[in-house]
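Letters spell out the chain; backbone shape is given numerically. Take this protein:
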Amino acid sequence: MSGARVILVTGGSRGIGAATCRFAADAGYRVVVNYASNEAAAGALVQDIEQAGGKAIAIKADVGNESEILSMFEQVDRAFGRLDALVNNAGVLDVMSRLDGISAARMERIMRVNVVGSMLCAREAVKRMSTTHGGKGGAIVNLSSMAAHIGGANQYVDYAASKGAIDSFTIGLAREVAAEGIRVNAVSPGIIDTEMHASTGEPDRIARIQDALPMKRAGTADEVARAVLYLLSDAASYTTGAILNVSGGR
């Protein structure tokens, strides 16, 4: 078992997750890249990290499935024997719609992955990090969204509501485990240039709205990932229960 710190990033094969994995590897973490389906992207990311002198593994698991989450954490235990940081990045979004056009199945899927999955992953991380459970402490960063504050009207109120739940969960868990060596924070991105916009049915969304943004541009995955790494770092040692907006003033 190595003394190097270990980080698990859910949804780590692309976008903000992949950027977080790369920055974490640069910071000396051994990186666990979780992915749900894109094995090729996860494998390529692991290869890039290792070619740069880091250590990484990829683990397939759907964070909307408790048994797969449990299996993922067991694989982390076997591979590294420790866990120091968790980034709850995995999330799903659907096509733009008003509430009266959203099915119960869609609502359930978004809540199951974005909220319940994040809570279950955090639960398993707490079991390994908390001094109450014999751990040495650690840090958790949840990925929220400015949609939690804006509400997602006429677009995706279900997604926005799921991120509002993440904000509440972040604050509550932070207070719950603060005395057990675990810090829990969230990053709330605004409009970020990733593949996720295509899943809403608007792949050209950024080009359409960027002039209306305060900084006249979308953010990048790297800009969000740097905020995540800050909250994981010792530089944020007295920061817990915080929600850091990375939104370009939106």
